[in-house]
Amino acid sequence: MFPRDPVAEGLVASLARPGGNATGLTNTPTLDIYGKQLELLKETIPKTSRVAVLWNAANAAVLAPALKEVERAGRSLGLELQVLGVRGPEDFDRAFEAMTRERPDALFVLQDSMLWTHRQRLADLEAKHRLPTMHGAREHVELGSLMAYGVDFAWHVSRAPFYIDRILKGANPANLPVEQPTKFELVINLKTAKALGLAIPQSILIRADKVIQ
Question: What pTM was estimated for this model as a whole?
Fold first, then answer.
């Protein structure tokens, strides 16, 4: 299992033909997931026109393409984005104070391991500043954030035995394509929606894979 982009990190030559002794699964979805996340956020809160975007600027080398896609998708949806970079939890208060001065309709958090580690702190700040937030992992929603759309990691990991079986039967890892996530999940926290005074559209609820009451 590759936690990030194995091509960018030099672990494989390409996803289609790794070319060495390493292959398997990568947690990194294709960039179009960010547009889908913004679309779902706007559908959930139709009045949305201004969105604050929080990202880990200390991980710019990895996240820059994702941020560019968020900005591109925002323009196509007619959203005004306020991009705020943080480098650690010590920057969270400053970032939330800066974003709330601009009165955004919602917050979009670009998925990152540092932000995931501090997901409870983020959920608390989102509640304090009354910001409906889209994340990329269900664990944020389980701790109080409004919603998440991202990789269904349980299903994705279940694909690992396929590679083990093929290699044990003599397949060359160099010729086994690295598999990107293909199954995603939408998770909604209705308790948080109620606290924020939001009515989640039925079109969103019927597509949700998990609804937290």
Answer: 0.83
